[in-house]
Amino acid sequence: MMARRAALIGAVLLAVACVERVSAPGACPSFCPSGQIQIVDTVLTSIIARDSAFRGYVTEPHASLMLAADLPGIVDGRPIFRIMGFGPTFVLSATDTGAILGADSARLQLTVARRDTGAHNLSLRFYRLPSTIDSTTTFTDLTGPFTDSLVKTVNIDTLLALPGRKDTLTGDSVVVDTVNHVLVLNLKLDSTAGRYVGPTDSGTAAYGVRVSADSLASIALTKSTLLWQWYLRVDSAGTPVARTPALRGAAFASFVFDPPPPPPDSTLAVGGVPSARSILRVAFPRFIRDSSQIIRGTLTLVPAAPVRGAPSDSFVVEAHTVFTDVGAKSPIIVDATRTDTTVVRIGISDTVRIEVTNLLQFWASDTTRATTLVLRAEQEATSFSLIRFYPSLAQAFRPALRITFVRRFPFGAP
C-alpha cells in the first residue's frame, strides 16, 4: 500500500512538472541559451591575392564626354569633332537640285557638362582641323592645326556677364540650365570660320577646341548634344538662294591629350583615360562565410602616389562583384545592392576605405559566387583623374579587409 501511494505521488509530481506555467518565469536552465552573443572585429591582411590592373575598357571615342584641360605639368586635353557635309549639291525640291556655292555662316551648339567655377576668364578657342580625323588621330598629329588654324575665341565668363547672356555683336549666347547644372552655348561662326567647301569636297568640316583660364582650366563637353547647322547658298537655275538645313550631330567626336597614359605596372590603377580597372581576388574565410552574420566590411587601399588631376575632377570609385571570374573580361554585376562606392579627391595620398558590406553579405548568401572584386571609376573615361593603389605584393601597404561579424549563437540543448 505504501509503495503504491508513493508511486501515485511521484506520478502527480511528474505531471505537475510537465505542465507549462505561462505566468511563472522560466526556471529550467536546460532550455536557456548557454552562451552570449560574440561580435568579432578583425583585419585580414593576407586574404587578397592575384590582384592586377587592366586598361582600355572605355577609350576616348567611346566616352560620353569630350575632355578639355589646360593643366601644366599634368595634362593638356583637346576635344575634336567632325561634321559630315551634304556633298557638292543640295536638293531644293523634288525636281530641282543645285550646286552648293558656300555658306554665309554656321551655328554650333555645345553643352558644358562640367567646369571649374573657380576658374576665371574661362575661354574656348576653336581651330579648323583636317576632315580626316578619326579614332587613330593622336595629339602629335594635330600639333600644326592647333597652332595656325584658329577660327574663333569665346570667353564664357564674359558671355555670362552680358545682359540676357547674349553678345549682339558676335551672335553668341549661353543658357544656364539650373536643373541639370550645365551651360548650353550657341555660337555663330562667320563665312570664314564656318565655311562650306562643296564644289571640290564633300563639305565635311572638322574642328578642335582648346580651353584656357587665369588658373588651371578643365571642362567637359557632352558629345550627344553637339549640334551644327550651316546657312548655305545654293545655285537655283543660276540664282543663289538661301537654305538652312536641319541640325546635324557629330559624325565623330573624341579628344586627344598629352602626355599619354603611363604604361601598366604592378600597381592597382583605377580611372583615367583610357579607363583602367583593377581586379582583387579574395580568399573569403569559410568560418566567416558559412558560420556567422556579417555586420560590416571595409576594404582598405593605400595609394601608391597622390591622385593627379584637375581640382574639380574628384571622382567616384566603385567596387563590384562579378558574375564569373575570367580575368580582365570578368563581367561585373551592375546592381546597387551588389556595388559599393567611395569618393576619391584629387591630391589625396591617405588610405582609401570602401564599405563593401553589401558585397560580403552577397557572397555569404550564395557560396557559388566567385569572391572577386572589380574596382572601376563610376563614369569611365570622363575624367583624367587616376588613382594607383599598392598591390598585394607590397607587404607593408597591401590591400586588406576589415570585417565585423557575429559568431553563430550557441543555443543550449533541451
What is the structure about, briefly put?
This protein is mainly beta and 414 residues long. The protein has helices at residues 2-18, 145-148, 156-161, 286-289, 357-365, and strands at residues 39-44, 48-55, 65-71, 75-83, 89-91, 97-115, 123-129, 150-155, 173-177, 182-190, 205-212, 217-222, 227-236, 239-243, 248-249, 252-258, 268-271, 276-282, 292-301, 315-320, 339-344, 352-355, 372-377, 386-389, 400-407. The chain has 2 domains: 39-58 and 274-407, no CATH class; 61-258, no CATH class.
Q: What key phrases describe this protein's structure?
A:
single chain, 414 residues, mainly beta, 14-stranded antiparallel sheet, 5-stranded antiparallel sheet, 5 helices, 25 strands, 10% helix, 42% strand, elongated
How would you describe the overall organization of this protein?
With 414 residues, this protein is mainly β. It has two domains: 39-58 and 274-407, no CATH class; 61-258, no CATH class. 10% of the residues lie in helices and 42% in strands. It has helices at 2-18, 145-148, 156-161, 286-289, 357-365; strands at residues 39-44, 48-55, 65-71, 75-83, 89-91, 97-115, 123-129, 150-155, 173-177, 182-190, 205-212, 217-222, 227-236, 239-243, 248-249, 252-258, 268-271, 276-282, 292-301, 315-320, 339-344, 352-355, 372-377, 386-389, 400-407. Strands 3, 4, 5, 6, 7, 8, 9, 10, 11, 12, 13, 14, 15 and 16 form a 14-stranded antiparallel beta sheet that branches. A five-stranded antiparallel beta sheet has the order 2-18-23-20-21. A hairpin with a 2-residue loop joins strand 13 and strand 14. Residues 12-20 have low confidence and may be disordered.
